[in-house]
Amino acid sequence: MEIVSNQYKHCDVVKVTGRLDSSTAPTLVDALNKITTENRFKIVMDFSGLTFISSAGLRVLISTLKNCKRYNRGDLVLAGLSSNILSVFDLAGFTAIFKIFPDVLTAVGSF
After folding, report:
1. Which residues of the chain have pLDDT under 70?
2. What is the pLDDT of residue 71?
3. Cα-Cα-Cα-Cα dihedral of 98, 101, 106, 111, to 10°?
C-alpha cells in the first residue's frame, strides 16, 4: 500500500493505492493521526487506486470520521471509489455514513 498526503488551503487529500487490510491499516492510522494532531479535520480520501479494503480498513475510516466530526470540526469524505470498493461500502452500510464523490475535485469542492 502507498499513501500520499497533500495539504491544501481548505482540506487535506490522502491518496491510498493498493490494498488496505490488517497489515497496512496501522500505516494509514499513522498518516491520518499526523493530520488530525495538527488540527486539520477536513480530509478527502482518494481511493481511485485502492484495489481492496478489509474490515480493518473500514474501522480506520470510521474512527477517523468520528474524530473529524467531533465538536463539528470537519469531515472525512471519500472520492474515486471503484465499483468493487463501492459495493463493499454498500454491503457494510457505510454509504449512508460517508459522503462519497465521483472524483477528488468534487470532494474538495464540498468543503
Report:
1. none
2. 86
3. 0
